[in-house]
């Protein structure tokens, strides 16, 4: 098809040209698993389009013909192969039937320097102990929608570029800058040194109500923790203020991505 660069038909399940897409239900190419290659994997036309528009260098596409053709405009100038197979061959390569019909893989770019991200930002999310990939994906989607400049990953966080996180974020994890903090919670000092007010989100007693915390003023970093134990005492003590979302009686917490969305909206002042 004109407009899709390097379209290549794949009929052999064992064709080595599609090894980047092989057995994703088992290895998923995570760098922290045996054999993992650390590739970024996008699923579906919308998410693949966002990968193509991101800083991550695309290696190849793989899908059924109709879905690859849907990407003709986005791939017209792309100098990588677009592998095409029928749904059965694709399912046998990937390891499961893919309803979205198309995948793309990319290399990870060099990690962003957290100091550089902090220096160019006004509103940041800082995460501690968020291990659920779906929560991470939803949180990044909320950050993109509500104008958060970047996400800093502290201790105990899972990989936000894991395939499930990318999918749940609808590809927005690929556009929100992220960086890893090496020393936790000591690196929060870097935020304070750059003029940030650090707000720890926690339902514990004595926390200031979100509506009264004034988070729409100046540079603000919101620290969010895992749904179970929440933020550690060390993280809360390292913050400038502990903030809670007012809730009706009988409910003591929210899903972390939901809590993040409410708080990110408060940062905007709208």
UniProtKB/TrEMBL annotation:
<dbReference type="InterPro" id="IPR051259">
    <property type="entry name" value="rRNA_Methyltransferase"/>
</dbReference>
<dbReference type="GO" id="GO:0008173">
    <property type="term" value="F:RNA methyltransferase activity"/>
</dbReference>
<dbReference type="InterPro" id="IPR029028">
    <property type="entry name" value="Alpha/beta_knot_MTases"/>
</dbReference>
<dbReference type="InterPro" id="IPR029026">
    <property type="entry name" value="tRNA_m1G_MTases_N"/>
</dbReference>
<dbReference type="InterPro" id="IPR001537">
    <property type="entry name" value="SpoU_MeTrfase"/>
</dbReference>
<keyword id="KW-0489">Methyltransferase</keyword>
<protein>
    <submittedName>
        <fullName>RNA methyltransferase</fullName>
    </submittedName>
</protein>
<dbReference type="GO" id="GO:0006396">
    <property type="term" value="P:RNA processing"/>
</dbReference>
<keyword id="KW-0808">Transferase</keyword>
<dbReference type="GO" id="GO:0003723">
    <property type="term" value="F:RNA binding"/>
</dbReference>
<dbReference type="InterPro" id="IPR029064">
    <property type="entry name" value="Ribosomal_eL30-like_sf"/>
</dbReference>
<dbReference type="GO" id="GO:0032259">
    <property type="term" value="P:methylation"/>
</dbReference>
<dbReference type="Pfam" id="PF00588">
    <property type="entry name" value="SpoU_methylase"/>
</dbReference>
<feature type="domain" description="tRNA/rRNA methyltransferase SpoU type">
    <location>
        <begin position="125"/>
        <end position="264"/>
    </location>
</feature>
């Amino acid at each position: 098809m004109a407009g899709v660069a390097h379209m290549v038909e794949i009929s052999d399940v064992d064709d080595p040209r599609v090894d980047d897409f092989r057995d994703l239900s088992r290895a998923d190419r995570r760098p922290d698993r045996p054999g993992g290659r650390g590739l970024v994997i996008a699923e579906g036309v919308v998410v693949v389009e966002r990968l193509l528009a991101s800083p991550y260098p695309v290696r190849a596409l793989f899908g059924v013909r109709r879905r690859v053709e849907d990407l003709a405009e986005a791939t017209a100038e792309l100098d990588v192969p677009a592998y095409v197979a029928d749904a059965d061959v694709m399912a046998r390569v990937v390891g499961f039937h893919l309803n979205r019909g198309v995948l793309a893989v990319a290399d990870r770019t060099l990690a962003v320097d957290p100091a550089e991200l902090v220096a160019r930002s006004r509103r940041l999310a800082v995460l501690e102990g968020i291990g659920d990939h779906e929560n991470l994906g939803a949180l990044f989607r909320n950050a993109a929608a509500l104008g958060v400049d970047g996400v800093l990953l502290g201790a105990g966080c899972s990989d936000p570029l894991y395939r499930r996180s990318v999918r749940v974020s609808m590809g927005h994890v690929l556009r929100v800058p992220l960086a890893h903090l090496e020393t936790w919670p000591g690196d929060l000092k870097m935020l304070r040194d750059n003029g940030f007010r650090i707000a720890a989100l926690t339902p514990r007693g004595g926390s200031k109500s979100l509506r009264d915390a004034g988070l729409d003023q100046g540079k603000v970093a919101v620290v969010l923790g895992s749904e179970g134990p929440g933020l550690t005492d060390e993280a809360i003590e390292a913050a400038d203020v502990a903030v809670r979302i007012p809730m009706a009686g009988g409910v003591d917490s929210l899903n972390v991505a939901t809590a993040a969305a409410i708080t990110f909206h408060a940062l905007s002042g709208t």
